[in-house]
Amino acid sequence: MKTRVISALVALPLLIIFVVLGGLPLKIAVTVIAIIGLYELFKAFCGFIKPVHYIGYGAAIIYMIFIEKIIYTASLFNVFAALFLVVILIYVVFTHESANTMDAVVTFFGFFYVCFLVSHVYLTRQFIHGNIFVWLIFMSSFGCDVGAYFTGITFGKHKLVPELSPKKTVEGAIGGVVVAVGICVIYGVVIEMMNELAGVDTVLLCFLTGLIGSIISQIGDLAASAMKRYTGIKDFGKIMPGHGGVLDRFDSVLLTAPTVYYIMFYLTKVNL
């Protein structure tokens, strides 16, 4: 527990600094997280599948460099995804003696699971007022993690999905949602008192984001647990003592980030 807290105290200021800075510094930070996360995922599957590492890393870097154009131009996103898949399949064809279709599948999946999903942290920060609402990603995911942990160890009796995560309980899951929603609503009230945003019901937006985001974050956590079970590993990495790897710490953020992004994109007037 002590190691876990120390790691969090080191990582949290870095997270805050890069998110506050936004722009290029945040883009670089997200790219680094994506590359490390891809490495961890590919390594997890390396026991029986050979993901095409360098094509995956290359796609991640190209995507992050041109992310604004790729995301905000539908045709470019389609072209990028198609070319990425074609390049992987060409590699498999020309190296068929050592590579197979599953190698291509894991490489393609890895890019979208790690890089595409986590990139929504940067995309959310790029919104008008994104400097305010990007924090909802972390409040709903990390808030849920903390709430679920302490509620679970205090009141937990009924196992949630013991086949995937033996320690998670129904009580912990509910407590995580309640804590995350509470944090997000309090944040919304404070923001509304300090800076009223035209066309945005801040408290309602924060409530919806906390509710939906915290539920989705737990699905992200369980999905990562399912992959670890399948590959026979305990943690994706060791880069964060007490937490594991980047994917172990950001597994809930991976699904929460696009959730917050699309809530903002479709339900508010703060999108670009």
From TrEMBL:
Alphabetized UniProt keyword annotations: Cell membrane, Lipid biosynthesis, Lipid metabolism, Membrane, Nucleotidyltransferase, Phospholipid biosynthesis, Phospholipid metabolism, Transferase, Transmembrane, Transmembrane helix
| Mode of membrane association | Multi-pass membrane protein
Any GO BP annotation: CDP-diacylglycerol biosynthetic process
Carries keyword Lipid metabolism?
A: yes
Task: Indicate the transmembrane segments per the record.
Answer: 12-39, 51-67, 74-94, 106-123, 132-152, 172-190, 202-220, 250-268
Its GO CC terms?
Answer: plasma membrane
Query: Where is it mainly found?
Result: membrane
Write down the Pfam families for this protein, in alphabetical order: CTP_transf_1 (PF01148)
Can you say where in the cell this protein is located? Cell membrane
In the record, what terms sit under GO molecular function?
phosphatidate cytidylyltransferase activity
Query: Record keywords: Oxidoreductase included?
Result: no
Query: Which PANTHER family does the UniProt record give?
Result: PHOSPHATIDATE CYTIDYLYLTRANSFERASE
Q: What name appears for this protein in its UniProt entry?
A: Phosphatidate cytidylyltransferase
Q: From what organism does this protein derive?
A: bioreactor metagenome
